[in-house]
């Protein structure tokens, strides 16, 4: 798969823009990961030249059990395919299979300032959470993230609010390198979807949904059984007004309405009209059932893929070969610019 895909049937001369995105293999994804990222990845591959990676090199900034990391990586790869990522349409690979990511990171390290990295809020947060393992990789992983993006001349990067700072660093480093050596790197822009970009905790709707939450009722795993999903939504925190309406101060209901909107395609106004005069109990059950049905084909496809390891291996090996073919050209150009002998 080349960097410029074939021309659209309409004959439009412009190439499709390139999108790169990665997800860490840190256990089964939540509904928030799915609605905020993966569901949008599926849609994007119709209109963009997409490159998706399971970024397992990022995962080891926090100590991992090797066997569990291997299993999580394979499951994450199977899961994005189960969600609808098509390896025939999008380059889909495992980060550690493509050596150029680590190689470009070293060059970019030499164009990244210590002060820039020390200002990264995620480094501060993780340093507090993992005080006994504040390693250089944890400090430096935004540079690896920049390499991930710049190797593929990505025009757009789907990012949540918590990753915007890292994308800004990527842009700054790329512009700094280009300022010295000419137009080598494409400067990426953020792609932030309008709906469902941030799904909140069911137990505390002021916080983002997270699989690391100590309360299992706070999040929906993408592979939860239907009865579990409905039960968790029934327990979701709302408010005392008993009116299904989207407005300030109704964080719990706003979150449920957002989720229901994304999985059904209904507008917030349509949802408000649908549940006018009905209680929160009816609404919570409806949201739970809609989510369970929405995720059903994902669960079924995932189960089938995990039973076909040969197919998964074939997909991720082909994806790695495609990714290397593109990224090696970019790395070769960088090495030439900085003065390395071929």
Structure described in brief:
The protein is built from 13 helices and 5 strands. The protein has 342 residues and is mainly α.
The whole-angstrom Rg is 21 Å
Q: What is the spatial order of strands in the main beta sheet?
A: 1-2-3
Can you count the beta strands? 5
Main β-sheet description = 3 strands, parallel
Beta strand %: 5-15%
Unreliable sequence segments? 1-8
| Order of helical and strand elements | EHEHHEHHHHEHEHHHHH
Binned, the helix content reads 40-55%
Name the structural class: mainly alpha
Summarize model confidence as the mean pLDDT: 90
Number of helices: 13
Distance between the termini: 25 Å
Taken from the alpha-carbon principal axes, the silhouette is globular
Oligomer: single chain
